Fold these 2 entries.
Entry 1:
Amino acid sequence: MRSARHDFWKGFWGALPFCFVVGPYGMVFGVLAAESGLDVLTAVAFSAAVIAGAAQFTALSLMQDQAPTVIIIVVGLAVNLRMALYSATLAPHLGAAPFWSRALVAYSTLDHSFVLADAKYQADPAMTISQKLAFFFGATGFVGVMWIVGTGLGAWLGTRIPDWLALDFAMPIAFIALVAPALRTVPQVATALAAAVLSLAFAALPYGLGLIMAAFVALLLGAELERRMQTTL
Amino acid sequence: MSYSSTTLWIIIAGLALGSWLLRFSFLGLICSKDLPEWLKRHLRYTVVSVLPGIIAPLVFLPKATGGVFDLPRFLAAAVTLGVGVWTRNLFVAVIAGGITLYSMLNISF
């Protein structure tokens, strides 16, 4: 049987491209945080405690609008609702792991590490729990560090980072590269198209509500298409 | 911005704790019990529904240009998608998208 260390490095190498985009993305957050009046230490603590880009950006923009504290927290968490979906998807694979391992998995669940782990677990069902955990931590650890370091660097450099670097677009490109290999079947492509169109249609809805609605409808559509295609075959 | 440092730390702590609870929710509740097939079928579509939902507004209404459609960013996204589907290689797709973005931004401006 192969060792869990092997799986850790598999996860690490698989996630390496994300270090190059999560770092710059963290810098964008750091710059915005500094512009909003957060000092370097607070900005870094923000990223280290929450490690969720979209929720952090949302919270910052609400703070710039002088929103009440409770609203900032509730809306930031609404943006992170997809994490509960990730949790449900990971549960059948990692649910039997010890409490502290699961607590650490929860803390470090990022979009990319979830996607990489989900694909790996589906492709290789024979993996043991410890191999699955090792892969997950390999895929998530270094990228999480890059997010925190990037935030500190961005908060420190502030507006000295030039606009032409277009750092804002590092994350969309990474997410597209992440989802592209998963578009194999008709239901998968239909789901992705529906989610994209619906999220644009709902883009005016506040507080990330549009994303949740679009993703939920698209997900139901994909699962239903898969069921129908199976029964007609 | 006029939040006191106490308020700021309450916001950070609230978001941190809430995010962790969301991420832990199902992992914490369900210990190794297998989910029913219909639920697993739906969860298989998590990735292909959530990510395109996040991506589409970022590509078509980028904040950096004030929510106005931006051709270099759109082309970079299209190339990344095309190369990603074709090669099924994440790294190659990211590089191709990055090269497209920088060359297009330099041509247009």
Entry 2:
Amino acid sequence: MTIPNTMRTTSMLAAAALLNGCGWNYTTSEQRNLPDRPWDPAVVVPADDGLYVPLPYAGALALVRPDGSSELVDIGPGRLGEVSTGPGGGSVAALVDRFTCEPDDPRDARGVDFAEDCATGLTVTREVGLLADGVLGESLPIPSHLNALEWAPDGGAAIAWLNADDDVRLDGVVDLTSVQVLDLTQGAATPVSVGFAANGLLFTEAGDRAIVLSRSEVAVLDLASEPLTLEVVFPLTLDPDDLVDPVGVELTPDGQFALISVRGKDDLYILDLAEHSVNLVSLSGNPTAMFVDSDTDQTVFVYDNSATVDVLEHEYFELQTLQLDEPMNQIIDAGDRVVLYSTGSSLHDAYLLELDTMALHEFRLENPATAMQLSPSNEFAVALTRPENGFGSGVEGIYDGSPGMEILDLRADIDGKIDTDSHPFLLETQGIGLAFAQDDTNLEVLVLQTDQDYLYGLDLYTGTPREIELPEPPAAIGTMPDGTFYITHNVGLGLISFMEPLGTELVAASGFAAAELFTLTPLNEEAP
Amino acid sequence: MRTAIVLSLLSTTAMAADNEVVLTAGSIVTNDAGWNQFSHSQPTTLGIRGGTALTKRVSAVAEYRFQYQGVTLADSFSLVRTSYTRHLGAAGFKVNAPLHPQMPLVPYGIVEAAFIGSQMKLDDNRGSRDNPNQLRRGAITAGGYGALGIDAIPPQGEFAIGFVGHMELGWLSHGPLDMGETGVLRPQGFAFRMGGGVRF
């Protein structure tokens, strides 16, 4: 039997079509890289209302509550820029970008409902508004390049500034010398010129002044005056060719002096905010960390490149230098004491410095630290350590090659002596987070480890361990304002576990990062 | 005059058999924003279409199309597996317009009302059965499909069953598919379909 040519052609055509369909249909290896994460387990904002979770891919914001519920916050048409929380988590503000499409030819805007569909003439405006119980309040417009907020101590005011270390959006003409002072309760925004490229901000404790660092100068804003005024500008150099880049600022406890460290120099600038004068103190090096202790009215400095610690008293600004065996780069407040440690490779020392007597206690860690935290009562310091390529044998060799946790007991015995031996523990994998829970009789440290789906708890008073099962390996741990722990997990569509301090039950909230996964950015209909 | 010609075409004897059953495959060119979360390529369906002649030129047709596509969405720290299933049922009329009685290529037009049921799944841990993030959302909607195509009909001779192949270009339009908090899908648009089957 012969098959006609036309029939043969038709059959082949149909077969090709069917095979083609099957081939397109489902390929398990097909992978698409998202330009942004649905959510970032390291970027969540605890507040009184719950945990605000930015959803970068969707440009949206979710509110996840400790009871496991979650909801999408209505931020209006636009994309979420940043979420910033004020002191104590009482005030939370959202920076939202609104888009309008205004091409030269208005016909090009017909049928364009989403920012992604606007070929030309897309303009963006940025607004900042307070969030309360998952609702975005009235918003204030700010220049779209301002991407960071620094809050006043009472949470009612903030300064919006350009933090070049974050994502920067440049749209139109940008004034790089300006910040915006926001009165979030009254709904007023005031631009203030503070100097080129502001890179650091600090409010005084009373909130009546703000200190703004910028290139080669420091501006002080008088926030109590009406209208708001620039009180004084301190030049950090008189030579325009000499660029001075201030990087750190702290205030003395009485609020009169601002201590300014600068990049690459050993000088500490002491600005007298009352007398408007500048004094210079020469430090032992370029400080990597600075801490003002209000109990003893002194400031402590440590250096990456110098095995010393400097202590500066605030009356005559005289410097006392103590020698260390290794350079330190971290300072932790421990009441009228400080703990010094280093995250540098192959450095094993940690120190307890008693600021009233200048007594220095040296601890020796088995492995280099990656992080250290103090218990709330300042009785213990717990360090997470990383493995190192040691050549030891036996137990020491095992420990050298393993990630660990080391406990430093900072309590003095009846003779006033401190046990400077560390108490090391081997961890299964690298420790990535610590948290403490305490009541009258228990003090528990909780340890997160990479790729381990349990939380290790150790009572520091009794040495009693326990394990708390997690639904997925953790990414980070933090504390809500009411003390509840939250643990984020590296899970694409969102997973956060909540646990009461010293509790055993976890409450999980999941799936919140799937919100608006298929939605484009709607244009702002209420364009100015 | 024009009406008379159309009526004449619809009633004239042609080579159409009484019934046909064809397997079809095709895809839709869509600009739906959410679709790229399910595939790099366009929505692709497999289906079966049956028709029975009402007149010499007009057939009643009904068809079912099935679609199942998915992709792995990756960011720097996690993977999310997505899948999209669409069931489309449609019924309507097909009008043949032969250019010449001896010609094996027969143009046609087809118009159908469509009923669509879709389901979307997201899963960020396919190795776990009790993963809480196995999201499943479904939606139904209605729409229409219209196309112009060409049947390739080889001579049937004295056989009771003959073959047919077809190729068509058209447009699928339907209402939005509300997938809950994830958003709204509407993967509709220009359609290209082809296939083959039997006539009897």
